[in-house]
Each structure stands twice: as structure tokens, then as C-alpha cells.
Amino acid sequence: MSFEFFGGTSPVDVGPVYEGERIRGKQMYIEFGGPKVEKHFELCRVNQDATDGKVTIIGPDIKDMEEGSSVPIGIHIEVAGPQLEEDLEAVFERRIHEFCNFVNGIMHLNQRYTNWMRLSKTAYEKGFDSLNILGAILIRLFKAELPIIEKAQVTFYTDAEKIKEPHAMAMKVYNARDERARGLHDEDVDMYYGCVLCQSFAPTHACCITPDRTSLCGSINWFDARAAAKVDPKGPLYEVPPGECLDAFAGEFSGVNDMIKKRSLGEISRIYLYSGMEFPHTSCGCFEAIDFFIPETGVGHGIIDRSHNGVALNGLPFSAMANQTGGGKQMPGFNGISIQYILSPKFQQYDGGIKMVVWMGKTVKDRIYELLPEDLRDKIATEEDVSDLNDLPAWLEKVKHPIIETEEYKAAVAGVEEEEEWEEEGAMMPVGTVGMTIPGVGGAGGFKVILKNCKIHAESIIIKKIESRRGKKK
Fold first, then answer.
1. pLDDT tens-digit map of 20-29
2. Radius of gyration (Cα) for the chain, nearest Å?
3. CA 196, 200, 206 angle in degrees (round to 5)?
4. Which among 245, 321, 333, 338 has most CB atoms closer than 10 A?
5. Secondary structure (DSSP) of 200-265
6. Which residues pair with 452 in a beta bridge?
7. Separation CA 361–CA 217 (nearest Å)
8. Coil, strand or helix: which one is 82?
């Protein structure tokens, strides 16, 4: 598929076949946004005065950038059309992810203020040396794939100073959308929605979007999904009738189970919407944060987001946990979530809810501090309070965190204190549930091991493949 721009054509192919293309560090020419860059965003707004086909670059263009560098990126798309309404903005905005990935030589990840994009060396060598090209492609795709859009214009920000003001404006828009969504709950509606925009990167994943569960990427709430499904019933966002409520506290619905079984091609058949430990929601790769289990606390959890620098309390950086969590896996103890979901009254309620969160990365806690329960907000540690698991019990006791009253916590702490004795006896002690996935060759196949109510101490664990004797000479 070719695209014209300022009298020329795109130097690379464009089409859905390129979704899921990975561009590793050694393959990239330039990197836009991502964890190394402070300011980046992507935003779509309805503006009936938009100038169709206009592309503006504020800051250096690709040809002016140093190879291998990481640069700011702001993508502001303005669309026009008589049928457009504000409810559709977030839906259109999420399509930036899809349309950028249509371009051979571009890899786009995440969304909103965590967007991350790479351009390959091969694409640059073919002549993809200007954001004007990408702008023209986005405009063409928005109008072709979403016919209710009649006009579109794109502004790119790549200057570290000039991106600050539009970035602040974008954050206000995101916060306003989230605030609106917080007033509605799952029991108030009779229809949920699904999204498969991330299936090119996570084949067995499908988001279930409810009033209390914003999409994992954080960019599509229930209102956005409803509007999208009405406008494009056969598109990537679709209706999910909840069906029979099988467990209200866990958030299990027959209709949601049917949806995930169909969309995962039978790989996943059951989901608890309100649990990260039992039949958890699958995770894509664009989630805003990770809710991770801390077995040393019995029932405690931690939360880390993409903006966190360094490692979490469990000694792992976000990237390592994301590799364990994403890809469409159903991983007990590691659950991709949106920031908005943390503030929901249904947040992991089957596991104890927000009161079982004992640690948060400072970046995410600072962002939602005022919205956390007043009697809990100062009892959740950050890396500034506790950076070593061994110090966590003392902190929790000092601030009188509600977890210290649970039997699971008491048993776990007692077990840690007696660790040497248990090690000598070679025994096991109850601390919770831990899951791990051991992949097959090349990431295919493999198997999952789930350890419930145990803690194992061993000098080493050796896993060997046992060759079949079938067909071999004796």
C-alpha cells in the first residue's frame, strides 16, 4: 500500500501485515518517547476547524536527529466531521497505536503519556527521514479506516522545551476523562465491552472493559468503548453481554468467559475481573502498571508503573516484570492494570482490595495520592520508605497498615523469623501463591508451575529435558 505526501509516496510499505513487528535496540535508527524520555504524549481531539492534510513539526525532524538517540515525541491529531463527538476522542487516539504499527519499519508501544516508538535503520535508509511521511500516513489511515472522519491534521512535538505546554494540556484531558468514568460502576450497566487492539502483540489477550475496569492501557474507559462499538460494530471494540453472574465478588461472568475463550482461541476459558491471583485477567503489553504479589507478606501486593526508575521492592525492574506479565498470559501474581483501576472499589477485591497494597512506586503513588483512601494513603510504602523486603514488616507495624491484622500476614512474618530453623529441617511454610511460566524453545509452548501455600529453600533447582526413547536403538 502506498501513500502520497507532499507530492511523493511513502518509501516503505504500509498495511496490517506489519503489526507486531519488533525493532530491537541494534535495529533502530531513532527512538521516540519511551522510558528514557521525560515528556511524551499522544492525543486526539475533535476540532471542526482542522485543516485537512496539514502536518506540522515543532522541533527537529528525523533527518536532523542523531542516530541511536531517544527524543521527545508529542502526537496531537485533530479530526473533524459532523458525526464526531467528544466521547470518540479516546477511541480515535488509541488507533494511533494500530496505525503506526501498520508502517513497515515502525514499532509503536503503549499510549497516552507512556507512548514509545522506534524507527528502524532499514526504513531510514529507504528514505523514511521525515515525520511528514508518518503524518500523511496517519491522516490517510484515519480517514480510510474511520469514514466518519472527514478532515484530519497532525502536529508533532520533538523539542524538549516546546513539548511542555501541550503535554500539560494533554494530561488535563486525560484526567478529565478518568474523572468522568469514576462515577459509574459495573452493577450500573447491562453491557460490557471488549477490545483486541493489542492482539498483534498478545495473540491470546482481549481486554474486558467495564465501568470499574478501564482498559489495561488506561486509554479507553467504558464510555469510550460504548461509543466506539456503536460507530464501528465490526471493529476492534465490541459489545460483551455479561451473561450470568457466576461470582459477584470475584467478578466472574459467563459472557466474559465466553468472550475470552473465543478471542483467545480456546487458550483462556475463565476470568475473575476482580482478582490478580485466581483466574486473573490476561495482560497485553501496553498496560500502565503491574500489580505484583509479595509472598513474604502472605497476602500483600505492590504496584509499579512504567515511569518507575530502578527496581521494585521485589528486586525486579518494570521491564522484567512486564516480560513475565505480558503477551496474553494469565499469570497469577503478576497482573497488568490501568492506573484508573487502582482507584476502583472493585480493585482486586477478591484478593483483599486496595487495603492489601503495601508498596507502590513513588511515581504512581504521587499521581493518585489524593484519590487513595485517606486512612491508607500514608500507610503504603514507596521506595523512599522501604527499598528492602527485610525492612517492610517494621514499616507496616510502625504505620499500623491493615494487613498486619490478617492471619496470612502473621503466618508469613512468623515463617520469615523462623527461616533458619525451617531451612535446617528442610520443611515448607505457608506464605501464599506463586506462579511461574517456563517457556518452550523460541518462546513456544512450555508449561506453568503454580506453588500454593509453600516456600521452598534449595541450593539449586535443575530442570532437564528427558529425551524420549521411542524409535531409538537399544
1. 788 988 899 9
2. 24
3. 25
4. 338
5. TT-TT--EEEBTTB--TTSS--HHHHHHHHHH-TTSSEEEE---SEEETTTTEEHHHHHHHHHHTT
6. 433
7. 18
8. coil
Query: What's the number of CA atoms in the CB half-sphere (13 Å) around residue 296?
Result: 17
Domain 288-325+352-474 - what CATH class? alpha beta
User: Quick one: pLDDT band at residue 453, thresholds 50, 70, 90?
Assistant: low
Topology annotation, domain 182-286:
Ribonuclease HI; Chain A (3.40.970)
- What number of residues does the chain have? 474
User: Identical fold at 182-286 and 288-325+352-474?
Assistant: no
Domain boundaries, the chain: 4-173, 182-286, 288-325+352-474
For the question of whether the overall pTM of this predicted structure is more than 0.90, the answer is no
Q: Please give the full DSSP string across 264-289, using - where no structure is assigned.
A: TTTS----BTT-SSSSBPP--S--SE
Encode pLDDT of 99-108 as tens digits. 999 999 999 9
Cα three-residue angle 178-181-182, rounded to 5 degrees: 90
* Fold of the domain spanning 4-173: 3.30.1650
